[in-house]
Amino acid sequence: MHSTERLNRYLARSGVASRRAADALIASGAVLVNGRRPPPAGMLVDPDRDRVTVDGRPVQAHPGTAWFAVHKPEGVIVTASDPQGRPTLFDLLGEHSDRRLFAVGRLDYDSSGLILVTDDGRLANRLAHPRHKVPKEYLAVVRGTPAEADLRRLREGVELEDGPTGPAEVELVGSAAGVSELRIVITEGRNRQVRRMFDAVDHEVRHLSRVAFGPVRLGRLKTGGHRRLRPAEVEALRRAASG
Length: 243
Fold this sequence. Notes:
Blueprint: E1 5-6, H1 7-13, H2 19-28, E2 31-33, E3 44-45, E4 52-54, E5 57-58, E6 67-72, E7 102-103, E8 112-118, H3 121-128, E9 136-143, H4 148-156, E10 159-160, E11 163-164, E12 169-176, E13 179-186, H5 193-200, E14 205-213, E15 216-217, E16 226-228, H6 231-240
Parallel strand pairs: 8-14
Antiparallel strand pairs: 1-3, 2-4, 4-5, 6-8, 6-16, 7-8, 9-13, 9-14, 10-11, 12-13, 14-15
């Protein structure tokens, strides 16, 4: 899945010129996209596919601007390499896997869902740090049906071996055949935290998927797939990490 942006925005993001000056460059004919002159009013480009040049020189976005949403399947480890030969998150990034990329936070080996990947290590660390309280939303399938008292404990915080958890949003989505689906939003990021929270109220997690990280949602991104974040999503992440 590929993401497009306005040509003048791409030129500005790459440090070629301001958006207004980029418009002038486009209108002058100095900018080519895949060897062709774009319309004077500009066009949409895909940074992953289109070759943009200015006066014959290739344009590339500055380092630190690559952001991807990845739909991690179960059984994939969030690391650059694995001595046991298990598939890694970065194997899913195809032609982007040779970049120096960081995963934002963690996602368990046996969990699935959204994880953000970037070459902006500074912002990645800010987003993952608990003091910024960036919300992470999950769908959990658990054994049994939690009672209202269980939900209240999860909402108020439960005692774990590494200390009490902070308040969480918890909603029972539905129950059938001895299992229940719940939506849970936390602002911490401890190791296997959601699973341990449900264990604390005696409801083992059978399946766990993260569906949102801050303002970015998993949406319809297919399992094992990835997409480049839109500039507006990156800016929303910066705002989320500024709190």
